[in-house]
Amino acid sequence: MPEFEFDVALSFAGEDRVFVERVANILRDNRVRVFYDEFEVLTLWGLDLYTFLDDVYRHKSRYAVVFASENYSRKMWTSHERRSAQARALQEKDSYLLPVRLDDSSVPGLRPTIGYIDGTARGPEAVAKLIIAKIGAPTPAPEPTEPPEDRLLGVPLTPEEKQSIISTRPRGWEYLLLAGGIWQGVQELEPKRLDHELRYARACDRYITRDGIRTFSQQAIDQFTNLVAKVMNVVRKESQDWALGAAGSPGDPTRINHLTKRFASAYEELLDWAADVRGTACPEECRRLLELIARFADEPVEKINEFARQIVAEAGRIPEHVASGTDEVLSITLELRFDGDPDLVAEFGRELDRLD
């Protein structure tokens, strides 16, 4: 196999940068040599871009991924990149040009018989994983079912460890018990999270017509809002004080265990909500809208998992701090906040208007 400077070169329109940048970052994080313009600002500065880009898409990359869209088909530079990639594809026995469709627009020169990936339906994370699999790079290792050893540091994960820490109650035991319970609850739902990441859902016993799609969408968004509020209610300060005890007061192990279970159940409801939306039967023209609705759960799911990792890492500092004998107060601050994706909201609104 010839040596290439890049494993994959990404060709896209500027209007689609938000989606493509997420793909590019995931590829780079997994040590894929990816050509993405923002990663090559210094290299591109002052060059003859016409010649340089032709060389990248025709000679320097093992694969070229084209993010096809209405914007892509009408841009001058994307047309140049596509023609260079097609010239290379004519010389290859195996697939070289890999199209990812971001809408239903046709792109000149891309035959409809070429196999493509539906980027809108799958999302940038799934597209990145497919690219990684295509180039034969090692797939990202799944999150371990236990935190790395250097993050355990006394966080109880088994029933025996929990009982021991409740019995002995060392300083900071409340936070160790809370961290272990949240970590376990989130990890037990990993199969459902992977289904969500895969955009997979079993069909549910529901059918929505095009006439009923707006009402269904509003109901689904209202349900999502309520679920997010439920997660935030579990982690609010009043809930923490109820279980862990206010400053200077001991915590209650029964309440702490109950709080961690409610956190996990709220997270599970969020995953189940997205799966139910995806599993709803509807006319084909409405399918994209349902997928966009389900993707509203992407940010909360990602941040809840990150929160679980952070709380274990932070709580794991407690035993070492206590063992040091210092009188200094160990400050632990964790934030769980959902900002929403404005681009996703805007895309959802456009798709809903299209169906009206």
Overview of the structural elements:
- Helix 9 (173-187) runs antiparallel to helix 15 (298-315), helix 11 (213-235) packs antiparallel against helix 13 and helix 14 runs antiparallel to helix 17.
- The protein has helices at 17-29, 41-44, 49-60, 70-73, 76-89, 119-135, 149-152, 159-168, 173-187, 190-198, 213-235, 237-244, 253-278, 287-294, 298-315, 318-323, 342-355, and strands spanning 6-11, 34-35, 61-68, 97-101, 117-118.
- It is an alpha/beta fold and 356 residues long.
- Residues 138-152 have low confidence and may be disordered.
- The chain has two domains: 6-135, 3-Layer(aba) Sandwich (Rossmann fold); 149-355, A middle domain of Talin 1, CATH 1.20.1420.
- The chain has a five-stranded parallel beta sheet.
- The protein is built from 17 helices and five strands.
- The longest helix has 26 residues, at 253-278.
- Helices cover 58% and strands 6% of the residues.
What's this model, at a glance?
The chain has 356 residues and is an alpha/beta fold. The protein contains 17 helices and five strands. Helix content is 58%, strand content 6%.
Lay out the secondary structure.
Blueprint: E1 6-11, H1 17-29, E2 34-35, H2 41-44, H3 49-60, E3 61-68, H4 70-73, H5 76-89, E4 97-101, E5 117-118, H6 119-135, H7 149-152, H8 159-168, H9 173-187, H10 190-198, H11 213-235, H12 237-244, H13 253-278, H14 287-294, H15 298-315, H16 318-323, H17 342-355
Parallel strand pairs: 1-2, 1-3, 3-4, 4-5
Helix pairs in contact: 1-6, 3-5, 9-13, 9-15, 10-13, 11-13, 12-13, 13-14, 14-17
